[in-house]
Amino acid sequence: MTLVRYAYPNIRPLNTFARTLSPWAGLESEIDRLFQSTRGGVAGATATRRVPVDLYEDKDNTYVRAELPGVNREDINIELVDGYLSIAATRKNKTADREESVSLTRSVSVPDAAVQADKITAAYENGILTVTLPKREEAKPRKVTVAVK
Amino acid sequence: MSLISSIIPALNRTAAPTTAKLATGDFAPTIKPAYELSETADGFALTVYLPGVEHAGLEFKADAENLSVIARRTWKTPAAWTSLYRESDTASYELTLSHENIVDLDKVQAELRDGVLRVALVKSESVKPRQIKVT
Known about the structure:
Chain A is mainly β. Chain A has one helix at residues 25-38, and strands at 53-57, 61-67, 76-81, 84-94, 99-109, 121-125, 128-134.
């Protein structure tokens, strides 16, 4: 038995351009969905409300990269509480006749003891938020040279 | 083999790649981005979510049948970074929507900001409802 990741259902209208499409449009989109769901586990933002997160590290920092397309910088709120880095953002969509806002949240467990909480920085570019969490000195890998007598 | 192919003609056919991929010569796997499409008074509003895509990596084409978006992520993981956990994909985004010539291609307006492509499509005059005067 294999574990298959849950594929988030796509938010999509029943057929793309209503009325004018071929009678097979429904079937086509159903087949599309079927094939997409096999890649659903790895696909990026398949649903608009999901916030995919990547974690990286190098010698000095841990990095959290979150996909948050279409959000204003002032609507992003990052907090580090009890070892959890939580990212909350609000996307405001304005159309001619209505305005809607979608809230996106995601939290990532971060070992409290390993992060210099007062030196966390964040940058937002092209819809991707990068949070840089500097490591504490004691959490960095240490190199000790032992002299052999 | 040729006997089997002659019995089943479908075996002689090769899969036709999509035109969008042919144009770029790029056969790498792509993912379909999340998108929203809504009808407005005189056309359609299309929103495509493309996190990590800059203007330079975006290709947006419209012809008589299809609208196609191919978007590549410009960001590459720095060599010193080790990935601990991944949820996003580095594959390019590809989205093709068929509009069956109901969109006025001269009036397509598109804007990419913060990883979101917003396109305003205006319906062509031929499909707009017309008031017919009865005499």
